[in-house]
């Protein structure tokens, strides 16, 4: 298991990995907060995104399919899809020095300071880990500390990507304004209390 040397990204990768490992075999067809995608499609999207970050950094191969149009089936074990993507992204970011002013990323603005670029990749992995967890009845891997650490990247990235990667920001429920997890999810257009339609 490759470490990126960036604690935030390694933590987010660990969250996504732990959730994917815990999903029961019959859970991958479950609906998710990403309304058009089931849990398997969210995993394919998340893996594709990590490969896209790696490809932009290294010039290596990117995802085999469009991460924003993931196929609706998983071929093989989830780890066979996810691990190469996480390894590629971790290895790529391991070569990024703190303070680097311009780091290539796969979405607009296509270049970010190192800390924000790392935060962008981590945000993607961690929030999709949450999507899969709540879809399949697993504990949320998105802790208050992780959510707070991801918020600076979200502040930079969300507005330019509204309607594409993120939905409109949602209001925070009364009493949840001080909750960094609920605040982050609502800011990204997700309902913090989302449950599957048949739950």
UniProtKB/TrEMBL annotation:
Annotated coiled-coil segments of the chain: none
Domain Mycothiol-dependent maleylpyruvate isomerase metal-binding intervals: 9-133
GO terms of molecular function: metal ion binding
InterPro entries in the record: CHP03086, DinB/YfiT-like, Maleyloyr_isom, MDMPI_metal-binding
SUPFAM superfamilies given in the database record: DinB/YfiT-like putative metalloenzymes
Name of the protein described by the UniProt record: TIGR03086 family protein
Source species: Streptomyces vinaceus
């Amino acid at each position: 298991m490759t470490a990126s040397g960036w604690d935030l990204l390694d933590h987010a990768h660990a969250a996504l990995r732990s959730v994917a490992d815990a999903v029961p075999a019959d859970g991958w067809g479950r609906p998710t907060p990403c309304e058009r995608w089931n849990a398997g499609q969210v995993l394919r999207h998340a893996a594709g995104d990590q490969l896209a970050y790696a490809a932009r950094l290294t010039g290596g191969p990117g995802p085999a399919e469009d991460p924003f149009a993931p196929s609706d089936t998983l071929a093989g074990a989830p780890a066979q899809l996810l691990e190469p993507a996480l390894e590629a992204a971790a290895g790529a970011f391991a070569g990024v020095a703190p303070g680097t002013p311009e780091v290539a990323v796969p979405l607009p603005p296509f270049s970010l300071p190192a800390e924000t670029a790392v935060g962008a990749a981590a945000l993607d992995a961690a929030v999709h880990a949450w999507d899969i967890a709540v879809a399949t009845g697993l504990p949320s891997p998105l802790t208050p500390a992780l959510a707070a650490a991801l918020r600076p990247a979200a502040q930079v990235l969300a507005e330019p990507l509204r309607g594409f990667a993120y939905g409109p920001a949602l209001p925070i429920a009364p009493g949840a304004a001080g909750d960094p997890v609920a605040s982050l999810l609502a800011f990204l257009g997700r309902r913090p209390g989302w449950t599957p339609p048949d739950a």
